[in-house]
UniProtKB/TrEMBL annotation, chain A:
Name listed for the protein in its UniProt record: Carbon-monoxide dehydrogenase small subunit
Annotated organism of origin: Allonocardiopsis opalescens
Pathway: Alkaloid degradation; nicotine degradation
Domain of life of the organism encoding this protein: Bacteria
Phylogenetic placement of the source organism: Bacteria, Bacillati, Actinomycetota, Actinomycetes, Streptosporangiales
Protein's UniProt keywords contain ATP-binding: no
TrEMBL record, chain B:
A Gene Ontology molecular function term of the record: iron ion binding
Protein name per the record: Carbon-monoxide dehydrogenase large subunit
Keyword tags: Molybdenum, Oxidoreductase
Essential cofactor(s): Mo-molybdopterin cytosine dinucleotide
Source taxonomy: Bacteria, Bacillati, Actinomycetota, Actinomycetes, Streptosporangiales
One Pfam assignment: MoCoBD_2
Protein's organism: Allonocardiopsis opalescens
Length: 194, 794
């Protein structure tokens, strides 16, 4: 029996020191050993991005990293991103209805925060390209793109607002036949035919 | 006696774009997904699954696994044969349907790749997975049956040898004289469309935890249907229903894939009973793609008959529907749900439909967003475009000549459904305006003229769908085993706060927010004072759960009814407190007052306290202020709308990109426009994905080649366009909310709009169809095949 590796990490501000099997995935270490179940698992091929966390400030799919590789690292998960969910990206996701079932949301938010770190003023196309590694099955991405753009502005990006978040207004739903304001926006470039 | 807030200040909640109550926990990771639950002493289950699409099981030996570290138990199908029962099919659509046994773990034969043959129960998920390799299974390979036509051919290998046929059922429907309509028509078109097999792929994999608790069991599952699941678990296992509690905690999407009673749920219950320990299983994504039911998979032979002026005479549809290896909860009912929708929004003299359900050695099909209706809408909307091309008519004009006009509602069509309301003219006019239809047609003409290698195509889909599932009477007539009602409880607590229990179980739809809005308006209490409870058969024992765009229409109406009863009871107590006659007491914005004399008044929240204290109740009024209601609709509801899609098709590479997409939907009255828009967006994404990207592919041996997210193309943000959405509002007449349902509209409408656009772009090249998904290779081949037909290379 070989020596069992020991990992030292700081996760959401808490210091951990554990012996782990060399093959243990970081996501399983977080969920099964530490009980940090705020970060979910969506696939087994690192395609979906639901398990995205920050390792030393950079977004990483925690299913594609071993716990031992995180030795000496500072890790931030959705649980520790901001007190009370107050990060501008989290607030923008709620404001723009950028989540439905919410399963992809932890990873999507963490990926979006890293995207804005790299590019504080992204265009719609840059947001779409930048979040390509995070799959959502509920939203069709339109409101996620709006939310990331809204967060960029909240965080001080100079660019013009391209997708105003819908106002919390009373729409004319009370009048039979009344039409709401169209949430029409500029056409996008379309699919990449990946 | 205190008055609630001034009536003049109150803004109606219904119609308001409230931010969701659900989001705070979802955005911070404070969620209760089933896989997050670890009851003390929980054991982990892993399954040995068949590598063959078809084979006889000669032997299963689990002894090697039992010797592995951390393994507590291991069982073969034979070990559980006496207790595991057969997975249920609740929709035997015909009296003579062939309905095979479906053991949760295979005992004698495996019939699709991934079918469970043995299980290992161990201290953690790694130990369980490690031990799988130590289970020895000996199979005798049998021939796979992958293609439906081959399955029906004379002498074909049988999926279920004892049944003597691969044909499960034939379900016919006829309305009007179809032979006369076709024979008498000036134009008759026949087309074959293929609805490829799709993988629903909710982001949360399926998971189940089951714990013995007291004299019974609690089973947590990532399910859309905890109430249906509870009944079915009792019927399958024989464990009495009152000893089973089912909980759907936070559920990460379903799209129909979690409207199911699965092998793993039944087995978790049986293993918890055998071992007297909590057990847990979570599927890997690959396991999920192989074993969670698939959707669609039909071959549609469609005949349309019309006059030269475009007037429709008749429609004939012959379906082959791939059941897969077994009939699961509503497998055979899915194509039947579509049967009534093929005529769409059009008037015609006659309609004939026939569906043949076919067994193959693939994972079963069942509900996937739209469930039968996307397939039907695709067929009618595709062939309407082909008819327009045949007649040399603008496809919008052909539709106008045939659709039901707004003044003709209510209208009973040849499909036998009575559409209660709608205004196709107005939705279409709005879509045309937002899309810039004429300008795009002009650009298309210019590009065609110039021989531009990138051609522009315009696709139309004018759809309706039946939702608000469903009138129990109709479901009974269609041989469905249960009803379609929904239940709600509304209870006012002593402090005036409100608990609402809904039988409709959400998994992303925002019930907690929308139901709070309804209750806030009906009871005149603050939105924040309402809490919605759901998904636990102990908290809300009655319910029919969430699917078929039914929650608001049926479940929301039950909430309205329960609120009305609460107000009725409160009115009697308020009258007593106001020393007035009940008939003279009015209820406005949360306060009761005597008609014509607004003061003094008593607020409903104060009445709740008086009902709790019960110090001074009038004759016949019982303590506490709460009520139950169930609602069973008389009819379906019929959302409709017009979707317009513009695509650019590169004729040199076959690449399709969506340039613009306009969706104008009429889902009736809207409770929360933010949630409605989100539902439309998500529906569009899934419908567009069927048109362009997704396909479950099997090889000739029945292996699923697209068994990972690396192989099955779920669209990312970079693969989809922005959407332009708008609504018209023609209230539904069958419920007090005027709501029609919105969960499936986007998926139902969008697939034909996109494919119509692709074909429209290529029609000058002689292309009349591209099989879905319209990936570059298919488009390119369609162009070359057309060129070859036209006698020469391009």
């Amino acid at each position: 029996m070989g020596r069992v590796p020991r990992v030292h990490t700081t996760i959401d501000g808490v210091v951990y020191q554990d012996e782990v099997e060399p093959r243990l995935l970081l996501i399983h270490y977080l969920r099964d050993r530490l009980g940090k179940v705020g970060t979910p698992i969506g696939c087994d091929t690192s395609n979906c991005g639901a398990c995205t966390v920050h390792v030393d400030g950079l977004s990483v799919k925690s299913c594609s990293m071993l716990a031992v590789q995180a030795d000496g690292c500072a890790i931030t998960t959705i649980e520790g991103l901001a007190p009370d969910g107050g990060h501008p990206v989290q607030r923008a996701f709620a404001d723009c209805h950028a989540l439905q079932c919410g399963y992809c949301t932890p990873g999507m938010v963490m990926a979006a925060v890293d995207l804005l770190r790299e590019n504080p003023d992204p265009s719609e196309a840059e947001i779409r390209e930048g979040l390509e590694g995070n799959l959502c099955r509920c939203t069709g991405y339109v409101n996620i793109v709006r939310a990331v753009r809204a967060a960029a502005e909240e965080m001080g990006a100079p660019g013009a607002r391209i997708h105003p978040a819908p106002e919390a207004a009373v729409l004319p739903g009370g009048v039979p036949g009344a039409e709401s304001a169209a949430h029409a926006s500029a056409p996008a470039g379309g699919g990449t035919g990946r | 006696m205190t008055a609630t807030p001034d009536a003049a200040e109150r803004v109606p909640e219904i119609g308001r774009a409230r931010r969701r109550k659900e989001d705070a926990r979802l955005l911070t990771g404070r969620t209760r997904w089933t896989d997050n639950l670890d009851p003390a002493g929980v054991l982990h289950v892993a399954f040995v699954r068949s590598p063959l699409a078809h084979g006889a099981i000669r032997s299963v030996d689990v002894s090697g696994a039992l010797a592995r570290p951390g393994v507590v138990a291991a069982f073969s199908g034979a070990d559980l044969a006496a207790e595991q029962g057969s997975l249920p099919c609740a929709w035997p659509v015909t009296a003579d349907i062939v309905l095979p046994d479906h053991p949760p773990m295979a005992v004698e034969e495996v019939r699709y790749v991934g079918e469970a043959v043995a299980c290992v129960v161990a201290r953690d998920r790694y130990a369980a997975a490690d031990a799988l390799e130590a289970v020895e299974v000996d199979y005798e390979p049998l021939p796979a049956v992958v293609d439906m036509a081959a399955a029906l051919a004379e002498g074909a290998p049988l999926v279920h040898a004892d049944k003597g046929t691969n044909r499960s059922f034939v379900w016919p429907f006829e309305s009007g004289d179809i032979a006369a309509a076709v024979d008498g028509a000036e134009v008759v078109l026949r087309r074959r469309y293929r609805q490829q097999r799709l993988i629903p792929a909710a982001m949360e994999p399926r998971a189940v935890v089951c714990a013995p608790e007291g004299e019974g069991f609690t089973l947590w599952s990532s399910t859309q249907v905890p109430h249906i699941l509870r009944v079915m678990l009792a019927m399958v296992t024989g464990i009495p229903e009152h000893l089973i509690r089912v909980v759907a905690p936070d559920v990460g999407g379903g799209f129909g894939s979690k409207l199911q009673v699965t092998a793993e749920e039944v087995l978790a219950l049986l293993l918890a009973r055998r071992l007297d320990r909590p057990v847990k299983w979570t599927e890997s994504r690959t396991e999920g793609f192989q074993t969670t039911h698939h959707g669609r998979d039909q071959v549609q032979d469609v005949t349309i008959a019309a006059d030269r002026d475009g007037r429709l005479r008749g429609l004939k549809v012959d379906l082959l529907a791939d059941m897969g290896a077994y009939l699961m909860l509503i497998t055979p009912g899915i194509p039947i749900l579509g049967a009534f929708m093929f005529p769409g929004i059009y008037k015609m003299d006659a309609y004939a439909f026939s569906c043949t359900g076919v067994f193959t050695t693939k994972v079963p099909t069942d509900a996937y967003r739209g469930a039968g209706r996307p397939e039907a809408t695709f067929a009618i909307e595709r062939i309407m475009d082909e008819l327009a091309a045949e007649l040399g008519m603008d496809p919008l004009e052909l539709r106008r000549r045939n659709w039901i006009r707004h003044e003709e509602f209510p209208y009973t069509g040849v499909g036998g459904l009575t559409y209660d309301s709608g205004d196709y003219e107005r939705a279409t006019a709005r879509a045309v305006e937002l899309f810039g239809y004429e300008e795009l047609r002009a650009e298309q003409a210019r590009r065609r003229e110039a021989g531009d290698p990138v051609q522009l195509g315009i696709g139309i889909s004018t759809y309706t769908e039946m939702c608000g599932l469903a009138p129990s009477r109709v479901l009974g007539e269609l041989s469905y085993a249960a009803g379609g009602w929904e239940h709600a409880s509304v209870r006012m607590l002593p402090t005036g706060k409100v608990e609402v229990v809904t039988g409709s179980t959400p998994h992303g739809q925002g019930h907690a927010t929308a139901w709070s809005q309804i209750v806030a308006d009906r009871l005149g209490v603050p939105f924040e004072d309402v809490r919605v409870l759901s998904g636990d058969t102990q908290v809300g024992p009655r319910g029919m759960d969430t699917y078929g765009s039914r929650s608001l229409v049926v479940g929301g109406t039950a909430v309205v009814r329960a609120c009305e009863r609460v107000v009725d009871k409160a009115r009697r107590l308020a009258a007593h407190l106001l020393e007035a006659d009940v008939g003279d007491v009015e209820f406005t914005d949360g306060a009761f007052a005597v008609r014509g004399t607004p003061e003094p008044s008593v607020g409903i929240q104060a009445v709740a306290l008086a009902a709790f204290a019960a110090h001074d109740l009038p004759e016949g009024v019982e303590p506490s202020l709460d009520s139950d209601a169930a609602f069973d609709p008389d009819n379906f509801s019929f959302p409709h709308g017009t979707h317009l899609c513009a695509v650019e098709v590169d004729t040199e590479t076959g690449r399709v990109s969506v340039r613009s997409y306009v969706a104008v939907d009429d889902v009736g009255k809207v409770v929360n426009p933010l949630i409605v828009e989100g539902q439309v967006h998500g529906g569009l994404a899934q419908g567009i994905a069927q048109a362009l990207y997704e396909e479950a592919v099997h090889d000739a041996e029945g292996n699923l080649l697209t068994s990972t997210m690396a192989d099955y193309l779920l669209p990312s943000s970079a693969d989809l366009p922005d959407f332009v959405t708008d609504r018209t509002e023609t209230p539904a007449t069958g419920n007090p909310l005027g709501a029609k349902g919105v969960g499936e509209a986007g998926t139902i409408a969008s697939t034909p709009a996109v494919v119509n656009a692709v074909v429209d772009a290529l029609r000058p090249y002689g292309v009349a169809d591209v099989e879905m998904p319209c990936k570059p290779e298919r488009v390119w081949r369609a162009l070359w095949d057309a060129a070859a037909r036209n006698g020469g290379a391009r």
